[in-house]
Amino acid sequence: MRILILALALSTLGGCALWMPSPDPSQAWVELVPSGETELKAVAVDEKPLDDHRYFQVTPGSHQLGMRYRFEVGAANVGRDSETLERDCRLTLDYDGFSAGERYRLVAGGYGFRPWARLYDERNQLLAKASERGCGGVAAR
């Protein structure tokens, strides 16, 4: 019986880490969508650091979103007989039309050594593209 209670308690704690807050209807919600086995994190809004790196929630209007994108560059893009390289990049995206209650998707990926990120609305219309602010290699994930 103790094992069952312990297992139940541990599984409940694990679920808390995955919990996302409910979107505030007076703000815009930006969902992060990395491609494949990559990592996309929310870093800042208007150059102010965020506490939660899983999403952006912003007031209506104009904002600059800062993000960090980690991805692998395949051996085919590096050179013959090379190993896969990992890249850790910073990107920013400026958009002046965030609306209260709207949901947006920030999709990220990479072409060779270059990262990209694009903002889409609920109707899947492209709204803005991010700018690369610098990249480096990473030793471990």
From TrEMBL:
<protein>
    <recommendedName>
        <fullName>Lipoprotein</fullName>
    </recommendedName>
</protein>
